[in-house]
Amino acid sequence: MAELKDILYGVNITSSVGNMNVEVKDVCFDSRQVSKGSLFVAVKGTQADGHQFIDRAVQQGAVAVVCEHLPDTVYEKSTCVTVKNSARALGIIAANFFGAPSQKLKLTGVTGTNGKTTVATLLYRLFSKLGYKTGLISTVEYRIQDKVLPSTHTTPDPVQLNRLLRQMADAGCTHVFMEVSSHAVVQERIAGLSFAGGIFTNITHDHLDYHKTFENYIKAKKKFFDELLPNAFALVNADDKRGMVMLQNTRAQKKTYALKKIADFKGKILTSTLDGLEMEVDGRQVWFKLIGNFNAYNLLAVYGAAVLLGEQPDEVLRILSDASGAAGRFERVPSSAKITAIVDYAHTPDALKNVLQTILAFRTGNEQVITVVGCGGNRDRTKRPLMASIAVQLSDKVVLTSDNPRDEDPMEIIRDMQAGITPAESRKTLVIPDREEAIKTACLMAKENDIVLVAGKGHETYQEIKGVKYPFDDREVLKRMLELVDND
CA 173, CA 483: separation in Å to the nearest integer? Predict the structure, then answer.
């Protein structure tokens, strides 16, 4: 419980009608969750406008309403507060309602197109091994120390997010690492949070279905750094051509990491194999278990952030040298079949390119690279032909299949992908909409020492079709199919 006037602290109020001292028992932005004593915040969403549900919220017992324009009806039992931006107000209100938990934590946000999950997960594991009580908010899972909670979004809504942070603070956590999606920045889900630092991994073609233009996508990422406070750090990948853009207006301490350019945290790849990476990091030679050049950047980001958070470089590198990657990120699937099988979350053109280039660099002879790939429905259509083009250019054989088709026809998605393939390239391409059959076919085509990559879903344990999530785990299916092939 908290008084309305207290949880409105820091909110840009334009007008108010009613009692500002009323007691609020919870904060809701979904009218269906409102009960007696709730504060209802009317937010304009992508699917619906919360202002349409103010009447329902009041009827269900909302003691106060926060909105961008006053409803026609004047409510005798509810206080009405208008604000310039109700989405931003929701973030600030949620933070206040839960007692500003981010201020009691060293909260580090990780943003970028690729690498967010790996960087956040590695930081969580690193700081846990350093002896800290640590929290994680990622695409794969939420963690309060060893307690695992299912992940619903890359970055949760403001109420869920602040509730999680409150639970972490109450559990004694000192450090929390979270992914910050571009959607979350634009939708003000992180408004009201205090960050100890922000990390930028890279930016490539993605989410244009939502942001409409690549420039808007860049601005969304940059907004996160623009709003960091002077006592925070902003750590960016200097090798990414947009990296320095992220630092242009930030008030935070500006720091860089790179493999190619001069940077505050400098790395160099000495050896890269399917067993790991040998790197030089700030003059120290280290062997890491993680695979691929893209993971060299992830490791540098984690190292730099840890040092900026006050940890000793040698101890950080010692622990990182034994670290494994995040679930579904370049994850090798063990089997008795003499086939190298890899599952990766790559669902953007750049991520797929990075994974396939890493695989090609490991080829020692005539091994075939067989790639199974699809694209998600109800998402950025413009990347579909690019994904297919990259797959056929960097693979010996490609099986185009379903990813999470959602509300779209899988064959329509595949046809969009085929637009990126030339007639000559189509000769090494198969179309199998059923994802399990596609994985099975790839395994049947593979010979001894060949490499099978199943891309797009990574850690996910479901396939979403027409609003229903059916159990489906690429790793389990791939393992089962490899055993089937091995027994033939």
Answer: 43
Helix 349-362 × helix 293-308 angle, to 10°: 110
Phi, psi of 314 (to 5 degrees): -65, -40
Task: Please write the tens of the pLDDT for every residue from 37-95.
Answer: 999 999 998 778 999 999 999 999 999 999 999 877 767 779 999 999 999 999 999 99
Q: For 363-464, where are the alpha helices, taking DSSP H only? A: 384-394, 410-418, 435-445
Q: What is the pTM of this model?
A: 0.86
Query: 146 exposed, middle or buried (CB, 10 Å; 0-12, 13-18, 19+)?
Result: exposed
Q: Report CA Rg, the chain.
A: 24
Q: How many CA atoms lie within 13 A of 370 on its CB side?
A: 23
- Ranking 117-126, 392-401, 424-433, 476-485 by mean pLDDT, the lowest is 476-485
Instruction: Say if residues 351 and 345 touch (Cβ distance below 8 Å).
Output: yes
CA-CA distance, 228 to 144, in Å (whole number)? 24
Residues paired with residue 110 on neighbouring β-strands, in sequence order: 179, 199
